[in-house]
């Protein structure tokens, strides 16, 4: 009797030469972590695929949708696992094709790998093809561009048969590309920017600036909802929260009205860079898109960017809002982002923010308050909350950091 398993296909990690085994290990760890709530009995590499088996019937079907969302997965197939008896795998092929939806044409593609099996691929094609023609007499065999390809993969003592795959999100497994700090608001854009970096294999450590104590802490909970929404496929291990309201008030009192937003942003970037250094993160990520709002003109981006030396990645810089919304819907963060919450973005906003800031004016405004002391104080009072994650490793220096840089660091969940 055939059992159902998931076969995971990956592209890019196949290109990584000697690193391949390392990337495959990270991908397997991601898949296992994403399936923690399932009865996974084995997750292993077979012949250029990752095989996932389950001890409870019916779970492979449900796991497909979770595996699909794991970065590094190009495609995932629900396969039948049988022994090498032709009768068994021919029957599995009939079931696989029969349950693959509407089709008119098909072909069989058999492949043998590391096996002493006496039948060759062409023999298997013929055998399975004959069984399928008998079961589906009104369907046509077509070698070029058929509606369905029934794949038969023979690996040692086992045969895997599948007729349909679903697309994965692609990219690289999280943890294969180092660590980045993401400026994460509860808006639409920054969750998408974070997701894009995670899909390229980066471990994302979000930093959220809250309007607290000048506003309620609603945005902090929305950001946590966003993090939970990205899981279990993308597991964010730690969220930093910076209560920013009082600093914004200080800036709004000291600086020209039109330059407030740029000052807020400069402080946000500087604090995030300090957290990035503690975390060992090598870049900062934002959800900025060119010209989308006043603070995202080239002049203003330049005026903010100059306070940091780490690279700043803006994966959405060339995207239209509609494209970003479509992606936010796909990853499930859109509805959360549409809930309104007062955060630091809505606090002390000028009526007419500068759209083309002149650097001299920006520098004069920056000197109008003690920005170094403000950055130190914000870093000292940063808070964090930890989440389940297999890819995040807390900074090794955190003990020392606790005692020196972040003496009052505390967990949000303790509040
Ligand atoms: P988003 O939907 O990501 O909030 P936005 O269109 O509202 O973007 P801005 O408010 O100008 O744009 O923010 C630009 C970027 O600055 C955001 O994408 C995010 O990376 C960062 N940012 C803005 N507000 C915050 C915040 N409260 N905490 C952390 N980062 C923020
Ligand atoms: Mg925003």
Summary of the model, kept short:
The protein is of the alpha/beta class and 415 residues long. It has 14 helices and 16 strands. The strands form two sheets. Strands 1, 2, 3, 4, 5, 6, 7, 8 and 9 form a nine-stranded mixed sheet that branches. It has a seven-stranded mixed sheet with strand order 14-13-10-11-12-15-16, with helices on both faces.
Q: What is the fold's blueprint, element by element?
A:
Layout: E1 3-9, H1 20-34, E2 40-46, E3 49-54, H2 59-68, E4 73-82, H3 86-98, E5 105-113, H4 121-135, E6 140-141, E7 148-155, E8 158-162, E9 165-170, E10 179-183, H5 189-199, E11 203-210, H6 218-230, E12 238-243, H7 245-254, H8 260-279, E13 284-285, H9 298-305, E14 312-313, H10 321-331, H11 334-338, H12 359-366, H13 371-380, E15 383-386, H14 398-403, E16 410-411
Parallel strand pairs: 5-6, 5-7, 10-11, 10-13, 11-12, 13-14, 15-16
Antiparallel strand pairs: 1-3, 1-4, 2-3, 4-8, 4-9, 7-8, 12-15
Bound molecules: adenosine-5'-triphosphate and magnesium ion.
């Amino acid at each position: 009797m055939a059992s159902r398993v998931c076969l995971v296909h990956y592209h890019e990690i196949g290109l990584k030469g000697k690193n391949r085994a390392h990337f495959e290990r990270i991908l397997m760890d991601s898949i296992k972590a994403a399936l923690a709530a399932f009865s996974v009995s084995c997750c292993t590499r077979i012949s250029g695929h990752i095989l996932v088996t389950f001890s409870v019937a019916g779970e492979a079907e449900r796991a497909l949708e979770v595996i699909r969302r794991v970065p590094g997965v190009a495609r995932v197939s629900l396969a039948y696992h049988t022994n090498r008896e032709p009768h068994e795998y021919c029957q599995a092929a009939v079931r696989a094709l029969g349950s693959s939806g509407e089709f008119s044409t098909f072909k069989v593609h058999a492949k043998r790998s590391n096996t002493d099996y006496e039948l060759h691929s062409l023999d298997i094609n013929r055998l399975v093809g004959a069984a399928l023609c008998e079961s589906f007499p009104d369907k046509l065999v077509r070698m070029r561009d058929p509606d369905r390809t029934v794949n038969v993969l023979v690996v040692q003592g086992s045969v895997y048969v599948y007729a349909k795959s679903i697309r994965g999100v692609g990219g690289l497994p999280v943890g294969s590309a180092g660590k980045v700090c993401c400026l994460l608001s509860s808006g639409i854009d920054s969750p998408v920017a974070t997701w894009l970096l995670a899909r390229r294999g980066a471990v994302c450590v979000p930093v959220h600036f809250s309007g607290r104590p000048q506003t309620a802490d609603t945005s902090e909970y929305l950001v946590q909802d966003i993090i939970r929404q990205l899981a279990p496929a993308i597991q964010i291990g730690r969220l930093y929260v910076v209560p920013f309201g009082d600093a914004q008030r200080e800036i709004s009192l000291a600086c020209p009205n039109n330059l407030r937003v740029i000052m807020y942003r400069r402080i946000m970037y500087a604090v995030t860079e300090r957290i990035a250094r503690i975390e060992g993160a090598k870049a900062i990520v934002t959800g900025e898109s060119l010209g989308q709002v006043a603070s995202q003109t080239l002049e203003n981006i330049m005026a903010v960017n100059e306070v940091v030396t780490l690279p700043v990645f803006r994966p959405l810089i060339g995207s239209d809002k509609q494209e970003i919304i479509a992606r936010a819907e796909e990853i499930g963060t859109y509805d959360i982002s549409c809930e309104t919450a007062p955060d630091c973005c809505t606090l002390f906003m000028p009526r007419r923010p500068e759209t083309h800031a002149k650097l001299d004016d920006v520098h004069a405004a920056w000197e109008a308050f003690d920005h170094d002391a403000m950055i130190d104080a914000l870093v000292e009072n940063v808070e964090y909350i930890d989440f389940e994650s297999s890819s995040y490793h807390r900074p090794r220096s955190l003990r020392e950091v606790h005692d020196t840089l972040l003496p009052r660091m505390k967990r949000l969940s303790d509040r």
